[in-house]
TrEMBL record:
<protein>
    <recommendedName>
        <fullName>Cilia- and flagella-associated protein 161</fullName>
    </recommendedName>
</protein>
<dbReference type="InterPro" id="IPR055325">
    <property type="entry name" value="CF161"/>
</dbReference>
<dbReference type="GO" id="GO:0060271">
    <property type="term" value="P:cilium assembly"/>
</dbReference>
<dbReference type="Pfam" id="PF24569">
    <property type="entry name" value="CFAP161"/>
</dbReference>
<dbReference type="GO" id="GO:0031514">
    <property type="term" value="C:motile cilium"/>
</dbReference>
Amino acid sequence: MAHTRTYRTNVRIGNWNEDLHLEEDSMKEYLEKKERGELTAQKVDFLKQNILTPVNLTVTNDGLLHFGDVVMLVNVGGKKRECSALSINADINSLTRIPAPSIQAPCGVSAGKGIQACKRTAFIITSVDGSPEGSTLHFEQSFALKTTSGIAGGLYLTSDLRSFQKCAKMSRLQEVNLDDGGSFLSWWKIVHFDPQERLEYEGQPVPANVSVLIIHCKTNQALAVLGDHVLWTTYGKEYEMTAHTFLDSHKAEQDNNHWILCTCDPAGNGLVLPNQPQAASDHKELTQANPGI
């Protein structure tokens, strides 16, 4: 008799009434969040839909970079890295919708493998020394890199000396992120990628779509992408960004520090992306079609 069932299978036991109300409340809360667009999947879709909006890069007719130009910073890759572009590493926690959708500061950056001109990868060359918009950018001249307006928030690429509390998450090197203050921490300068020609090019106009070094003015460290440190982001597997100068046995900067400030092809064929690092006076261009521009 001890093992005899004393109730039918459809008899409710325990706190069945309380469990039923909790289930109804959970479903009601879910439907309300869905209606307001507050579900995690909806936030991710909203973020990607807005931050991946195509952007028209500047068309440079004279082959030079100017203040106010909209460019994309591309690293052509190396042994452990694919071709990647400096990108805003924003997630749903850094997104605010009031009063308008935008990225909150501070926000991280990463090197994304998607070479596409969009809100996430476009940066504006901004003057910090009073140079008028449209004037030519020169080697060793200080400038700032600013994200576009709108959801990108108009934030500045910033870095500072590393400390125990503030450093890159994986490599523990000098951190690079986006902040809303245009202070000295957001000042950068461009130098020639070849140390033997660096002095000769000092003060000369910076050509577009060639390999250069982007140096942080305060710390004198070069912007770098790390192929052996992979981040899992909302947009997939990407490389970690840092400000650190990597030197080879000849005291020359390695390809981790080589960057191309890409513009749009004047012929309208898309993004101009050089095939390999070459001198500014003699470079070969490879046009990569980009229907998003």
